[in-house]
Specification:
mainly alpha; Butyryl-CoA Dehydrogenase, subunit A, domain 3; 8 helices; 0% strand; Invertase/methylesterase_inhib; PCW_Enzyme_Inhibitor; Pectinesterase_inhib_dom
């Protein structure tokens, strides 16, 4: 009897396992991270959006008229920065040109003043005196030409004003030559001189554009 019970229990257990294996359904569940655990990807800043922001910033700083006025110059940013603080109301290209020439003239006066200080300074090298003297004369002539240029622009005579401004380049060359012919002596204030002739270059470019426009 005991043997029969053991056999019966074994048979029932085996049958139960068999039934479970037949009826079992394999799981198809996909495990996902909870929302708080899911990795987040920060979107990269769009290059187009950054460019648009930059344009918008410049548009707030400089009017469209100023940007257009300076667009034909070689140093457009310097052009806009120079004239923007002094222009208000309706944009006048001749007034803007006058401001640009005035900025050039102020820089020329500054350089001329610094040259005079060097000439008056006993510590200045003797071999530099002659070159500095020539440059002082040239910078005085530059300022005079720029003053005449401003007066001509006020008379709406841009053609002759351009002629006056172009002479500034000749005065610069004469100053450069004076130092070239003085071995061991270097031109002082190179950064200021570079800025002066960037400003002057802008003036000439604007004048060319105005003259060309009126010829059409």
């Amino acid at each position: 009897m005991d043997q029969f019970n053991k056999t019966t229990i074994l048979f029932i257990g085996t049958l139960s396992c068999l039934l479970l294996s037949i009826t079992a359904v394999p799981s198809t569940r996909v495990f996902e991270l909870a929302p708080s655990q899911a990795p987040t990807v920060q979107p990269k800043a769009s290059g187009i959006r950054l460019l648009a922001n930059l344009v918008a910033k410049n548009a707030k700083q400089f009017s469209p008229e100023i940007l257009k006025f300076c667009s034909g110059t070689e140093h457009a940013a310097l052009c806009a920065e120079t004239i923007a603080p002094y222009l208000a109301g309706e944009f006048d290209p001749l007034k803007a040109l006058e401001m640009e020439i005035n900025a050039s003239m102020e820089k020329a006066k500054e350089i001329g003043g610094n040259i005079k200080k060097m000439l008056d300074n006993p510590a200045t090298e003797k071999k530099a005196i002659d070159a500095l003297g020539i440059c002082q004369s040239q910078y005085d002539d530059m300022v005079d030409s720029m003053k005449e240029g401003v007066d001509l622009v006020r008379q709406q005579n841009v053609v002759d004003a351009r002629y006056k401004l172009s002479s500034v380049l000749s005065y610069k060359s004469a100053c450069d030559d004076a130092f070239t012919e003085s071995p061991g002596v270097h031109i002082p204030f190179p950064e200021d001189i570079t800025k002066l002739f960037q400003l002057t270059s802008n003036c000439l470019a604007v004048m060319d554009a105005i003259v060309h426009k009126h010829k059409m």
